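thread: overnight batch results

M.L. [08:02]
morning all. the overnight job finished for the chain we discussed friday. pasting input first so we're all looking at the same thing
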Amino acid sequence: MVNNLKGIAASDGIAIAKVYLLTEPDLTFEQVEGVDVEVEAKRLDDALLQTQAQIQDIRETALTRLGEEEAKVFDAHLMVASDPELIDQVKSTIKSDQINAEAALHNVSQMFIQMFKSMEDNPYMQERAADIKDVSERILANLLGVKLPSPASIKEEVIVVAHDLTPSDTAQLDRKYVKGFVTNIGGRTSHSAIMARSLEIPAIVGTGSIVESVKDGDIVILDGLDGVVHINPTTELREDYEQKGAEFEQLRQEWAKLVHAETKSKDGKSFELAANIGTPKDLTGAIENGAEAIGLYRTEFLYMDSQDFPTEDEQFEAYKAVLEGMNGHPVVVRTMDIGGDKELPYLSLPEEMNPFLGYRAIRISLNEPDMFRTQLRALLRASVFGKLRIMFPMIATLNEFRGAKALFEEEKANLINEGVKVSEEIELGIMIEIPAAAVLAHQFAKEVDFMSIGTNDLIQYTMAADRMNEQVSYLYQPYNPSILTLIKHVIDSAHKEGIWAGMCGEMAGDQTAVPLLMGLGLDEFSMSASSVLKTRSLMSKLNYEDMKQLAEKAINECTTVEEVIALVEEAKKSI
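M.L. [08:03]
and the structure it wrote out:
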Protein backbone atom coordinates (compact mmCIF):
# COMPACT_ATOMS: atom_id res chain seq x y z
CA MET A 1 0.00 0.00 0.00
CA VAL A 2 1.34 3.44 -0.94
CA ASN A 3 1.80 5.71 2.08
CA ASN A 4 3.27 8.74 0.34
CA LEU A 5 3.98 10.10 -3.12
CA LYS A 6 6.54 12.63 -4.31
CA GLY A 7 5.59 15.23 -6.88
CA ILE A 8 6.46 18.77 -7.92
CA ALA A 9 5.69 21.48 -5.35
CA ALA A 10 3.68 23.88 -7.51
CA SER A 11 2.24 26.20 -4.85
CA ASP A 12 3.41 26.74 -1.25
CA GLY A 13 1.47 25.66 1.80
CA ILE A 14 0.26 22.69 3.82
CA ALA A 15 -3.24 21.24 3.80
CA ILE A 16 -4.87 18.29 5.58
CA ALA A 17 -8.30 17.20 4.38
CA LYS A 18 -10.23 14.36 2.82
CA VAL A 19 -9.91 13.48 -0.84
CA TYR A 20 -12.39 14.71 -3.43
CA LEU A 21 -11.65 12.54 -6.45
CA LEU A 22 -12.37 14.47 -9.61
CA THR A 23 -12.90 11.67 -12.11
CA GLU A 24 -13.59 11.80 -15.80
CA PRO A 25 -17.30 11.31 -16.70
CA ASP A 26 -18.42 8.50 -18.97
CA LEU A 27 -18.50 10.03 -22.45
CA THR A 28 -18.73 6.78 -24.39
CA PHE A 29 -21.06 6.70 -27.37
CA GLU A 30 -21.84 4.56 -30.39
CA GLN A 31 -21.42 5.68 -33.96
CA VAL A 32 -24.83 5.76 -35.66
CA GLU A 33 -25.03 5.72 -39.45
CA GLY A 34 -27.81 6.72 -41.84
CA VAL A 35 -28.92 9.59 -39.62
CA ASP A 36 -31.11 12.58 -40.40
CA VAL A 37 -28.37 15.08 -41.27
CA GLU A 38 -30.42 18.18 -40.44
CA VAL A 39 -31.44 16.82 -37.03
CA GLU A 40 -27.81 16.03 -36.15
CA ALA A 41 -26.60 19.47 -37.31
CA LYS A 42 -29.29 21.07 -35.11
CA ARG A 43 -28.21 18.92 -32.13
CA LEU A 44 -24.64 20.11 -32.69
CA ASP A 45 -25.71 23.78 -32.84
CA ASP A 46 -27.67 23.41 -29.58
CA ALA A 47 -24.70 21.74 -27.86
CA LEU A 48 -22.38 24.51 -29.11
CA LEU A 49 -24.64 27.25 -27.73
CA GLN A 50 -24.83 25.42 -24.38
CA THR A 51 -21.04 25.01 -24.35
CA GLN A 52 -20.39 28.67 -25.13
CA ALA A 53 -22.72 29.75 -22.31
CA GLN A 54 -20.98 27.40 -19.85
CA ILE A 55 -17.51 28.64 -20.82
CA GLN A 56 -18.65 32.25 -20.49
CA ASP A 57 -19.90 31.49 -16.95
CA ILE A 58 -16.59 29.80 -16.06
CA ARG A 59 -14.69 32.79 -17.47
CA GLU A 60 -16.67 35.17 -15.23
CA THR A 61 -15.91 32.95 -12.22
CA ALA A 62 -12.20 32.90 -13.13
CA LEU A 63 -12.17 36.67 -13.55
CA THR A 64 -13.62 37.15 -10.05
CA ARG A 65 -11.48 34.57 -8.27
CA LEU A 66 -8.23 34.64 -10.23
CA GLY A 67 -8.01 37.91 -12.16
CA GLU A 68 -7.76 39.01 -15.77
CA GLU A 69 -4.61 37.16 -16.79
CA GLU A 70 -5.77 33.72 -15.64
CA ALA A 71 -9.24 34.26 -17.16
CA LYS A 72 -7.69 34.71 -20.61
CA VAL A 73 -7.44 30.99 -21.23
CA PHE A 74 -11.24 30.90 -21.52
CA ASP A 75 -11.13 33.44 -24.33
CA ALA A 76 -9.17 30.76 -26.20
CA HIS A 77 -11.82 28.18 -25.23
CA LEU A 78 -14.60 30.43 -26.52
CA MET A 79 -12.69 30.80 -29.79
CA VAL A 80 -12.49 27.00 -30.11
CA ALA A 81 -16.22 26.62 -29.34
CA SER A 82 -17.08 29.05 -32.15
CA ASP A 83 -14.26 28.23 -34.57
CA PRO A 84 -15.88 27.98 -38.03
CA GLU A 85 -13.09 25.71 -39.31
CA LEU A 86 -13.77 23.13 -36.59
CA ILE A 87 -17.58 23.44 -36.67
CA ASP A 88 -17.81 23.39 -40.48
CA GLN A 89 -15.67 20.25 -40.62
CA VAL A 90 -17.89 18.50 -38.06
CA LYS A 91 -21.03 19.42 -40.01
CA SER A 92 -19.38 18.40 -43.26
CA THR A 93 -18.49 15.02 -41.71
CA ILE A 94 -22.08 14.54 -40.48
CA LYS A 95 -23.30 15.21 -44.01
CA SER A 96 -20.71 13.25 -46.01
CA ASP A 97 -20.55 10.19 -43.72
CA GLN A 98 -24.20 10.44 -42.57
CA ILE A 99 -23.13 9.78 -38.97
CA ASN A 100 -24.35 11.18 -35.66
CA ALA A 101 -22.96 14.44 -34.25
CA GLU A 102 -21.05 12.66 -31.44
CA ALA A 103 -19.05 10.51 -33.88
CA ALA A 104 -18.40 13.40 -36.28
CA LEU A 105 -17.23 15.66 -33.43
CA HIS A 106 -14.94 12.93 -32.08
CA ASN A 107 -13.35 12.23 -35.49
CA VAL A 108 -12.71 15.87 -36.32
CA SER A 109 -11.56 16.98 -32.87
CA GLN A 110 -9.14 14.03 -32.61
CA MET A 111 -7.65 15.01 -35.96
CA PHE A 112 -7.05 18.58 -34.70
CA ILE A 113 -5.71 17.40 -31.33
CA GLN A 114 -3.21 15.01 -32.92
CA MET A 115 -2.15 17.67 -35.41
CA PHE A 116 -1.36 20.18 -32.64
CA LYS A 117 0.15 17.56 -30.33
CA SER A 118 2.62 16.57 -33.04
CA MET A 119 4.13 20.07 -33.06
CA GLU A 120 6.72 19.11 -30.46
CA ASP A 121 8.90 22.15 -31.13
CA ASN A 122 6.00 24.56 -30.49
CA PRO A 123 4.66 24.47 -26.90
CA TYR A 124 2.08 27.15 -27.73
CA MET A 125 0.51 24.91 -30.38
CA GLN A 126 0.69 21.91 -28.05
CA GLU A 127 -1.28 23.91 -25.48
CA ARG A 128 -3.93 24.49 -28.15
CA ALA A 129 -4.35 20.70 -28.27
CA ALA A 130 -5.29 20.76 -24.58
CA ASP A 131 -7.78 23.59 -25.25
CA ILE A 132 -9.43 21.65 -28.09
CA LYS A 133 -9.62 18.51 -25.92
CA ASP A 134 -11.21 20.43 -23.03
CA VAL A 135 -13.79 22.17 -25.25
CA SER A 136 -14.65 19.16 -27.44
CA GLU A 137 -15.27 17.03 -24.31
CA ARG A 138 -17.66 19.71 -23.06
CA ILE A 139 -19.51 19.76 -26.40
CA LEU A 140 -19.67 15.95 -26.37
CA ALA A 141 -21.00 15.94 -22.80
CA ASN A 142 -23.73 18.37 -23.84
CA LEU A 143 -24.61 16.19 -26.85
CA LEU A 144 -24.88 13.16 -24.57
CA GLY A 145 -26.71 15.02 -21.82
CA VAL A 146 -23.93 14.09 -19.37
CA LYS A 147 -23.13 16.54 -16.59
CA LEU A 148 -19.43 17.33 -16.33
CA PRO A 149 -17.79 17.39 -12.87
CA SER A 150 -18.41 20.71 -11.18
CA PRO A 151 -15.71 21.68 -8.67
CA ALA A 152 -17.81 24.80 -8.00
CA SER A 153 -20.37 22.58 -6.22
CA ILE A 154 -17.89 21.52 -3.50
CA LYS A 155 -19.23 22.71 -0.14
CA GLU A 156 -16.90 21.04 2.39
CA GLU A 157 -13.18 21.18 3.08
CA VAL A 158 -11.38 18.86 0.64
CA ILE A 159 -8.20 18.30 -1.29
CA VAL A 160 -9.04 17.79 -4.96
CA VAL A 161 -7.26 14.85 -6.61
CA ALA A 162 -7.30 14.45 -10.40
CA HIS A 163 -5.28 13.03 -13.28
CA ASP A 164 -4.98 16.62 -14.42
CA LEU A 165 -6.99 19.76 -13.76
CA THR A 166 -8.23 21.56 -16.82
CA PRO A 167 -8.32 25.36 -16.72
CA SER A 168 -12.12 25.03 -16.51
CA ASP A 169 -11.83 22.86 -13.39
CA THR A 170 -9.25 25.08 -11.69
CA ALA A 171 -11.21 28.28 -12.31
CA GLN A 172 -14.18 26.82 -10.43
CA LEU A 173 -12.23 26.00 -7.26
CA ASP A 174 -13.44 27.93 -4.22
CA ARG A 175 -10.51 28.35 -1.82
CA LYS A 176 -12.98 28.51 1.10
CA TYR A 177 -13.56 24.77 0.63
CA VAL A 178 -10.77 23.52 -1.64
CA LYS A 179 -7.69 23.48 0.56
CA GLY A 180 -5.37 22.28 -2.18
CA PHE A 181 -5.04 19.91 -5.12
CA VAL A 182 -2.83 17.07 -6.32
CA THR A 183 -2.53 15.75 -9.88
CA ASN A 184 -0.88 12.87 -11.72
CA ILE A 185 0.65 15.08 -14.38
CA GLY A 186 1.80 18.69 -14.85
CA GLY A 187 4.68 21.02 -14.01
CA ARG A 188 5.31 24.34 -12.24
CA THR A 189 4.46 26.27 -15.42
CA SER A 190 1.21 24.43 -16.25
CA HIS A 191 -2.10 26.36 -16.19
CA SER A 192 -3.26 24.60 -13.02
CA ALA A 193 -0.03 25.37 -11.13
CA ILE A 194 -0.14 29.06 -12.07
CA MET A 195 -3.80 29.30 -11.05
CA ALA A 196 -3.07 27.56 -7.72
CA ARG A 197 -0.51 30.24 -6.92
CA SER A 198 -3.05 32.92 -7.85
CA LEU A 199 -5.62 31.30 -5.54
CA GLU A 200 -2.89 30.94 -2.89
CA ILE A 201 -3.76 27.31 -2.21
CA PRO A 202 -1.09 24.58 -1.91
CA ALA A 203 -0.68 22.28 -4.90
CA ILE A 204 1.44 19.33 -5.97
CA VAL A 205 1.55 18.21 -9.60
CA GLY A 206 3.29 15.43 -11.49
CA THR A 207 2.94 12.69 -8.83
CA GLY A 208 2.42 10.08 -11.54
CA SER A 209 -0.18 7.98 -9.73
CA ILE A 210 -2.13 9.91 -7.06
CA VAL A 211 -5.49 9.06 -8.67
CA GLU A 212 -4.72 5.34 -8.54
CA SER A 213 -3.41 5.56 -4.96
CA VAL A 214 -6.40 7.15 -3.19
CA LYS A 215 -10.19 6.89 -3.01
CA ASP A 216 -12.91 9.38 -2.11
CA GLY A 217 -12.87 10.17 1.60
CA ASP A 218 -9.23 9.18 2.26
CA ILE A 219 -7.39 11.68 4.44
CA VAL A 220 -4.27 13.16 2.86
CA ILE A 221 -1.58 15.60 3.92
CA LEU A 222 -0.50 17.88 1.08
CA ASP A 223 2.96 19.29 1.73
CA GLY A 224 3.27 21.99 -0.91
CA LEU A 225 6.62 23.07 0.52
CA ASP A 226 8.44 19.79 -0.17
CA GLY A 227 6.15 18.27 -2.82
CA VAL A 228 5.08 15.24 -0.77
CA VAL A 229 1.58 13.74 -0.32
CA HIS A 230 0.97 11.52 2.73
CA ILE A 231 -2.02 9.16 2.36
CA ASN A 232 -4.10 8.21 5.43
CA PRO A 233 -1.37 9.43 7.81
CA THR A 234 -0.91 8.27 11.40
CA THR A 235 -2.23 10.53 14.15
CA GLU A 236 1.36 11.39 15.06
CA LEU A 237 2.29 12.43 11.51
CA ARG A 238 -0.90 14.44 11.21
CA GLU A 239 -0.08 16.30 14.44
CA ASP A 240 3.45 16.99 13.16
CA TYR A 241 2.02 18.50 9.97
CA GLU A 242 -0.59 20.50 11.82
CA GLN A 243 2.32 22.05 13.69
CA LYS A 244 4.28 22.56 10.46
CA GLY A 245 1.22 24.18 8.85
CA ALA A 246 0.74 26.49 11.83
CA GLU A 247 4.40 27.49 11.64
CA PHE A 248 4.05 28.24 7.92
CA GLU A 249 0.96 30.40 8.56
CA GLN A 250 2.91 32.22 11.27
CA LEU A 251 5.66 32.78 8.72
CA ARG A 252 3.10 34.28 6.31
CA GLN A 253 1.98 36.66 9.07
CA GLU A 254 5.59 37.61 9.75
CA TRP A 255 6.13 38.28 6.05
CA ALA A 256 3.00 40.46 5.97
CA LYS A 257 4.65 42.82 8.48
CA LEU A 258 7.35 43.55 5.88
CA VAL A 259 4.98 45.12 3.34
CA HIS A 260 6.33 48.63 3.93
CA ALA A 261 9.87 47.62 4.98
CA GLU A 262 12.98 48.42 2.98
CA THR A 263 14.71 45.49 1.29
CA LYS A 264 18.07 45.15 3.02
CA SER A 265 20.50 42.39 3.89
CA LYS A 266 21.34 41.75 7.56
CA ASP A 267 24.48 43.89 7.18
CA GLY A 268 22.63 46.79 5.52
CA LYS A 269 23.10 46.27 1.75
CA SER A 270 20.04 47.58 -0.14
CA PHE A 271 18.26 45.79 -2.98
CA GLU A 272 15.13 46.54 -5.02
CA LEU A 273 12.30 43.99 -4.97
CA ALA A 274 9.93 44.33 -7.91
CA ALA A 275 6.92 42.46 -9.30
CA ASN A 276 6.14 41.09 -12.75
CA ILE A 277 2.71 42.05 -14.14
CA GLY A 278 0.69 41.37 -17.29
CA THR A 279 -2.06 44.00 -17.04
CA PRO A 280 -2.80 47.16 -15.00
CA LYS A 281 -5.21 45.06 -12.90
CA ASP A 282 -2.23 43.06 -11.58
CA LEU A 283 -0.95 46.21 -9.92
CA THR A 284 -3.14 45.66 -6.83
CA GLY A 285 -1.40 42.38 -5.98
CA ALA A 286 2.03 43.93 -6.52
CA ILE A 287 1.32 46.84 -4.16
CA GLU A 288 -0.39 44.68 -1.53
CA ASN A 289 2.66 42.41 -1.48
CA GLY A 290 5.07 45.29 -0.95
CA ALA A 291 6.72 45.49 -4.38
CA GLU A 292 9.03 48.53 -4.61
CA ALA A 293 8.83 48.63 -8.40
CA ILE A 294 7.43 46.89 -11.44
CA GLY A 295 10.36 45.01 -12.92
CA LEU A 296 8.50 43.58 -15.89
CA TYR A 297 5.27 44.80 -17.46
CA ARG A 298 4.49 42.31 -20.23
CA THR A 299 2.82 44.54 -22.81
CA GLU A 300 2.07 41.71 -25.23
CA PHE A 301 -1.15 41.03 -23.31
CA LEU A 302 -2.45 44.34 -24.67
CA TYR A 303 -2.02 42.86 -28.14
CA MET A 304 -3.27 39.37 -27.27
CA ASP A 305 -6.47 40.73 -25.68
CA SER A 306 -7.38 42.70 -28.79
CA GLN A 307 -8.97 41.77 -32.11
CA ASP A 308 -6.61 44.21 -33.85
CA PHE A 309 -3.47 46.16 -33.08
CA PRO A 310 -4.13 48.28 -29.96
CA THR A 311 -4.21 51.98 -30.79
CA GLU A 312 -1.75 54.54 -29.47
CA ASP A 313 -4.43 55.93 -27.12
CA GLU A 314 -5.38 52.48 -25.80
CA GLN A 315 -1.76 51.72 -25.04
CA PHE A 316 -1.20 55.17 -23.53
CA GLU A 317 -4.07 54.64 -21.05
CA ALA A 318 -2.70 51.24 -19.97
CA TYR A 319 0.85 52.53 -19.45
CA LYS A 320 -0.38 55.67 -17.70
CA ALA A 321 -2.50 53.59 -15.28
CA VAL A 322 0.51 51.52 -14.20
CA LEU A 323 2.88 54.50 -13.91
CA GLU A 324 0.36 56.50 -11.86
CA GLY A 325 -0.51 53.44 -9.77
CA MET A 326 3.13 52.99 -8.74
CA ASN A 327 3.20 56.54 -7.40
CA GLY A 328 6.71 57.48 -8.50
CA HIS A 329 8.27 54.02 -8.09
CA PRO A 330 10.04 52.62 -11.18
CA VAL A 331 8.14 50.70 -13.87
CA VAL A 332 10.02 48.59 -16.41
CA VAL A 333 7.85 48.21 -19.52
CA ARG A 334 8.95 45.49 -21.93
CA THR A 335 8.09 46.31 -25.52
CA MET A 336 5.98 43.81 -27.43
CA ASP A 337 7.29 40.25 -27.03
CA ILE A 338 5.13 38.45 -29.59
CA GLY A 339 6.27 35.28 -31.34
CA GLY A 340 7.48 31.95 -29.99
CA ASP A 341 4.48 30.68 -28.01
CA LYS A 342 2.55 33.98 -28.31
CA GLU A 343 0.72 34.53 -31.57
CA LEU A 344 -1.72 37.16 -32.78
CA PRO A 345 -4.60 36.18 -35.06
CA TYR A 346 -4.33 39.52 -36.85
CA LEU A 347 -0.52 39.41 -37.36
CA SER A 348 0.57 36.98 -40.02
CA LEU A 349 3.76 35.26 -38.88
CA PRO A 350 5.64 32.72 -41.00
CA GLU A 351 5.51 29.06 -40.01
CA GLU A 352 8.86 28.16 -38.49
CA MET A 353 10.57 24.94 -37.47
CA ASN A 354 11.60 26.55 -34.19
CA PRO A 355 9.67 29.77 -33.48
CA PHE A 356 11.48 30.32 -30.15
CA LEU A 357 14.69 30.86 -32.11
CA GLY A 358 12.95 32.66 -34.93
CA TYR A 359 11.00 35.76 -35.84
CA ARG A 360 9.84 37.27 -32.56
CA ALA A 361 10.02 40.19 -30.10
CA ILE A 362 12.45 42.97 -31.13
CA ARG A 363 12.98 41.24 -34.48
CA ILE A 364 9.31 41.82 -35.35
CA SER A 365 9.33 45.35 -33.89
CA LEU A 366 12.28 46.45 -36.01
CA ASN A 367 10.75 44.84 -39.10
CA GLU A 368 7.33 46.45 -38.45
CA PRO A 369 8.42 50.01 -37.56
CA ASP A 370 4.92 51.54 -37.78
CA MET A 371 3.62 49.13 -35.14
CA PHE A 372 6.72 49.73 -32.99
CA ARG A 373 6.50 53.52 -33.34
CA THR A 374 2.89 53.41 -32.08
CA GLN A 375 4.02 51.63 -28.92
CA LEU A 376 6.99 53.98 -28.41
CA ARG A 377 4.78 57.07 -28.83
CA ALA A 378 2.29 55.73 -26.27
CA LEU A 379 5.13 55.04 -23.82
CA LEU A 380 6.68 58.47 -24.35
CA ARG A 381 3.34 60.22 -23.77
CA ALA A 382 2.78 58.19 -20.57
CA SER A 383 6.31 58.84 -19.29
CA VAL A 384 5.36 62.12 -17.55
CA PHE A 385 3.07 60.18 -15.17
CA GLY A 386 5.81 58.24 -13.40
CA LYS A 387 9.29 56.77 -13.49
CA LEU A 388 9.48 54.90 -16.80
CA ARG A 389 12.09 52.37 -17.84
CA ILE A 390 11.72 50.81 -21.32
CA MET A 391 13.17 47.37 -21.98
CA PHE A 392 13.73 45.81 -25.40
CA PRO A 393 13.38 41.99 -25.44
CA MET A 394 15.30 39.30 -27.34
CA ILE A 395 18.27 41.53 -28.11
CA ALA A 396 21.14 39.59 -29.68
CA THR A 397 23.31 42.33 -31.19
CA LEU A 398 24.28 45.92 -30.44
CA ASN A 399 22.85 47.00 -33.80
CA GLU A 400 19.41 45.79 -32.73
CA PHE A 401 19.55 47.96 -29.62
CA ARG A 402 20.88 50.92 -31.61
CA GLY A 403 18.06 50.50 -34.15
CA ALA A 404 15.41 50.43 -31.42
CA LYS A 405 16.95 53.41 -29.67
CA ALA A 406 17.07 55.40 -32.92
CA LEU A 407 13.31 54.88 -33.46
CA PHE A 408 12.71 55.89 -29.84
CA GLU A 409 14.72 59.11 -30.28
CA GLU A 410 12.89 59.93 -33.54
CA GLU A 411 9.46 59.56 -31.94
CA LYS A 412 10.58 61.54 -28.90
CA ALA A 413 11.64 64.42 -31.18
CA ASN A 414 8.38 64.15 -33.15
CA LEU A 415 6.25 64.40 -29.99
CA ILE A 416 8.23 67.36 -28.66
CA ASN A 417 7.76 69.12 -32.03
CA GLU A 418 4.01 68.45 -31.71
CA GLY A 419 4.06 70.16 -28.31
CA VAL A 420 3.57 66.95 -26.32
CA LYS A 421 5.38 66.72 -22.98
CA VAL A 422 7.69 63.76 -22.46
CA SER A 423 9.98 62.89 -19.57
CA GLU A 424 13.71 63.48 -19.88
CA GLU A 425 14.41 60.74 -17.31
CA ILE A 426 13.39 57.63 -19.31
CA GLU A 427 15.87 54.76 -19.00
CA LEU A 428 16.40 52.48 -22.02
CA GLY A 429 17.55 48.94 -21.30
CA ILE A 430 17.63 45.44 -22.69
CA MET A 431 16.54 42.01 -21.59
CA ILE A 432 19.48 39.64 -21.42
CA GLU A 433 18.06 36.29 -22.51
CA ILE A 434 20.28 35.32 -25.44
CA PRO A 435 23.72 33.92 -24.51
CA ALA A 436 25.38 36.11 -27.19
CA ALA A 437 24.13 39.24 -25.39
CA ALA A 438 25.19 37.87 -21.99
CA VAL A 439 28.71 37.14 -23.26
CA LEU A 440 28.94 40.64 -24.79
CA ALA A 441 27.39 42.37 -21.76
CA HIS A 442 30.55 44.43 -21.19
CA GLN A 443 29.96 46.11 -24.58
CA PHE A 444 26.18 46.52 -24.16
CA ALA A 445 26.75 48.12 -20.75
CA LYS A 446 28.52 51.06 -22.41
CA GLU A 447 25.35 51.99 -24.35
CA VAL A 448 22.30 50.93 -22.30
CA ASP A 449 20.89 52.38 -19.05
CA PHE A 450 20.22 48.97 -17.49
CA MET A 451 20.21 45.23 -18.18
CA SER A 452 17.56 42.83 -16.88
CA ILE A 453 18.26 39.10 -17.08
CA GLY A 454 15.42 36.94 -18.39
CA THR A 455 16.50 33.62 -16.92
CA ASN A 456 13.63 31.50 -18.29
CA ASP A 457 15.00 31.81 -21.83
CA LEU A 458 18.66 32.35 -20.94
CA ILE A 459 18.76 28.98 -19.18
CA GLN A 460 17.04 27.04 -21.96
CA TYR A 461 19.18 28.64 -24.66
CA THR A 462 22.42 28.14 -22.73
CA MET A 463 21.63 24.49 -21.91
CA ALA A 464 20.09 23.83 -25.37
CA ALA A 465 17.08 22.35 -23.55
CA ASP A 466 13.44 23.29 -24.19
CA ARG A 467 12.01 23.94 -20.71
CA MET A 468 8.59 22.63 -21.83
CA ASN A 469 10.05 19.27 -22.89
CA GLU A 470 9.77 16.73 -20.07
CA GLN A 471 12.52 14.54 -21.55
CA VAL A 472 15.11 17.29 -21.02
CA SER A 473 13.54 19.10 -18.06
CA TYR A 474 16.47 17.96 -15.88
CA LEU A 475 18.63 20.39 -17.84
CA TYR A 476 16.60 23.39 -16.73
CA GLN A 477 19.22 24.22 -14.09
CA PRO A 478 19.13 27.79 -12.71
CA TYR A 479 21.99 27.05 -10.28
CA ASN A 480 24.32 25.44 -12.79
CA PRO A 481 27.79 27.04 -12.42
CA SER A 482 27.70 27.91 -16.15
CA ILE A 483 24.49 29.95 -15.69
CA LEU A 484 25.84 31.62 -12.55
CA THR A 485 29.03 32.54 -14.45
CA LEU A 486 27.01 34.21 -17.22
CA ILE A 487 24.91 36.10 -14.65
CA LYS A 488 28.03 37.26 -12.83
CA HIS A 489 29.50 38.59 -16.08
CA VAL A 490 26.33 40.58 -16.80
CA ILE A 491 26.19 42.08 -13.29
CA ASP A 492 29.91 42.88 -13.18
CA SER A 493 29.71 44.48 -16.65
CA ALA A 494 26.80 46.68 -15.57
CA HIS A 495 28.52 47.85 -12.39
CA LYS A 496 31.76 48.61 -14.22
CA GLU A 497 29.84 51.09 -16.40
CA GLY A 498 27.82 52.51 -13.47
CA ILE A 499 24.43 51.05 -14.47
CA TRP A 500 22.12 48.65 -12.62
CA ALA A 501 21.45 44.99 -13.34
CA GLY A 502 18.15 43.27 -12.62
CA MET A 503 16.47 39.93 -13.16
CA CYS A 504 12.88 39.28 -14.24
CA GLY A 505 12.84 35.50 -14.75
CA GLU A 506 11.48 32.85 -12.35
CA MET A 507 14.94 32.54 -10.79
CA ALA A 508 14.66 35.99 -9.15
CA GLY A 509 12.09 34.68 -6.65
CA ASP A 510 13.64 31.24 -6.21
CA GLN A 511 14.60 30.87 -2.54
CA THR A 512 17.68 28.76 -3.37
CA ALA A 513 18.86 31.25 -5.98
CA VAL A 514 18.30 34.42 -3.92
CA PRO A 515 21.39 34.04 -1.66
CA LEU A 516 23.56 33.44 -4.73
CA LEU A 517 22.10 36.41 -6.61
CA MET A 518 22.61 38.65 -3.58
CA GLY A 519 26.24 37.57 -3.45
CA LEU A 520 26.67 38.25 -7.17
CA GLY A 521 25.49 41.82 -6.52
CA LEU A 522 22.19 41.78 -8.43
CA ASP A 523 20.53 45.17 -7.85
CA GLU A 524 16.88 44.45 -8.72
CA PHE A 525 14.91 41.22 -8.27
CA SER A 526 11.57 41.04 -10.12
CA MET A 527 9.21 38.13 -9.47
CA SER A 528 5.61 36.99 -8.98
CA ALA A 529 3.96 39.33 -6.47
CA SER A 530 3.30 36.42 -4.10
CA SER A 531 7.06 35.80 -3.75
CA VAL A 532 8.06 39.37 -2.77
CA LEU A 533 7.52 39.23 0.99
CA LYS A 534 9.15 35.85 1.62
CA THR A 535 12.14 36.99 -0.45
CA ARG A 536 12.42 40.23 1.56
CA SER A 537 12.30 38.18 4.76
CA LEU A 538 15.05 35.82 3.55
CA MET A 539 17.29 38.69 2.44
CA SER A 540 16.97 40.40 5.82
CA LYS A 541 18.51 37.33 7.48
CA LEU A 542 21.52 37.03 5.17
CA ASN A 543 24.82 38.92 5.32
CA TYR A 544 25.79 40.35 1.95
CA GLU A 545 29.50 39.84 2.63
CA ASP A 546 28.90 36.17 3.45
CA MET A 547 26.78 35.74 0.31
CA LYS A 548 29.60 37.21 -1.81
CA GLN A 549 31.86 34.42 -0.58
CA LEU A 550 29.08 31.87 -1.15
CA ALA A 551 28.57 32.97 -4.77
CA GLU A 552 32.31 32.98 -5.43
CA LYS A 553 32.61 29.45 -4.05
CA ALA A 554 29.62 28.26 -6.13
CA ILE A 555 31.20 29.53 -9.35
CA ASN A 556 34.84 28.65 -8.70
CA GLU A 557 34.62 25.42 -6.71
CA CYS A 558 31.32 23.71 -7.60
CA THR A 559 31.11 21.59 -10.72
CA THR A 560 27.48 20.44 -10.61
CA VAL A 561 24.10 21.93 -9.77
CA GLU A 562 23.76 19.46 -6.88
CA GLU A 563 26.94 20.80 -5.29
CA VAL A 564 25.63 24.37 -5.56
CA ILE A 565 22.30 23.45 -3.94
CA ALA A 566 24.09 21.67 -1.07
CA LEU A 567 26.31 24.72 -0.58
CA VAL A 568 23.32 27.08 -0.36
CA GLU A 569 21.35 24.77 1.96
CA GLU A 570 24.33 24.59 4.31
CA ALA A 571 24.62 28.40 4.35
CA LYS A 572 20.88 28.80 5.07
CA LYS A 573 21.13 26.55 8.13
CA SER A 574 22.91 29.34 9.98
CA ILE A 575 19.98 31.78 9.74
